[in-house]
Every structure is written in C-alpha cells, then in structure tokens.
Amino acid sequence: MIGLEYEMTYRETIEGPLTPTTGSPLGERLCWKVASASLTGDRIDATLAMPGTDWIRLGPDGIRRQDLRAQLLTRDGAVILLHYDTGLIRPSEAFLNALSNGGETGWTDQYMRMVPEFDTGDDSYAWLTQNLFVAEGRLAGAKQIEYRIYRVL
C-alpha cells in the first residue's frame, strides 16, 4: 500500500505577473518571479539562492497549470534545484477572492497540488533525488504560496 510521510514545507513570495501571453499559439501564460523562498523540514533548511520563475498556463477550463524553477541553497552550502511542471490549481471562489485581495486560504479551500522534483550533487541530500514527492498548497498571504511536501512511501 502506498503511503505519504510529511517531509518539508516550501514557501515562496512571488512578484508580478507580466502581462499574459493571450493569443499565443502555445497557450496563455502568466509569468511570475519567485522573489524569495524557503524549504524547511527535519532534514533540510534552504533559502532561495537567486530569483526563480513560475510560468502558469491558463487553461480554457479555468485550471492553472504551473511550471516552476527555483534554485535554493542549504544552510550548509548545498545547491538544491527545485522544479515542477506537474502542478495544478483548480481555483475556487475562496481562492480567487484571496488572490485578488491578498488574503490567505486554508488547505481545503482549493485544489492546489504539485509534484516537486529535486536535483543536487550533494550526498547529504541524495534522498531528494531518490524519492518521489507530492504536495498540497494554499495561498499564505499577499503573493505568498505555501506547500506541504510529502514523500511517497
């Protein structure tokens, strides 16, 4: 039986977005800058090393599909690359209101999921590249996003 174990929390503050790419043959996107971020858990403590990007595809079905890249540096100096292009937000009225007003949502106020992937060459964090992870998200305030990341057992 497959199980999940809480591993870490990813928090980010975003800036933007740029004007949507409405009319693009590849689909409409919103481009956000990841201005600050942290990844914290019992086995990891990292912060954003340089700005990242989140290209959100806006589907005609109202679903927001994320494509994020972020570069983090652990407290002990390891470089951790985080990306996910399997991210999905099915917005609710509560989500859209909080997004417009800079508010927070609860974990069940929207369907906000992602499958993070990590890359690192540091042996201390090899567990990040040797496991699968899934996450649930929420809005944590004005232009702030928070994900609880679980390791798939």
List its traits.
single chain, 153 residues, mainly beta, Porin, 8-stranded antiparallel β-barrel, 1 helix, 9 strands, 6% helix
Q: What's the structural blueprint in terms of helices and strands?
A:
Elements (H helix, E strand, L loop, with lengths): L3 E12 L13 E13 L2 E15 L5 E11 L4 E12 L2 H9 L9 E4 L2 E3 L13 E9 L2 E9 L1
Antiparallel strand pairs: 1-2, 1-9, 2-3, 3-4, 4-5, 5-6, 5-7, 6-8, 8-9
Structure description:
There is one protein chain. This protein is mainly beta and 153 residues long. It has one domain (4-152): Porin. The chain contains 1 helix and 9 strands; from the N terminus they run E-E-E-E-E-H-E-E-E-E. Strand 3 (44-58) and strand 4 (64-74) form a beta hairpin. The longest helix has 9 residues, at 93-101.
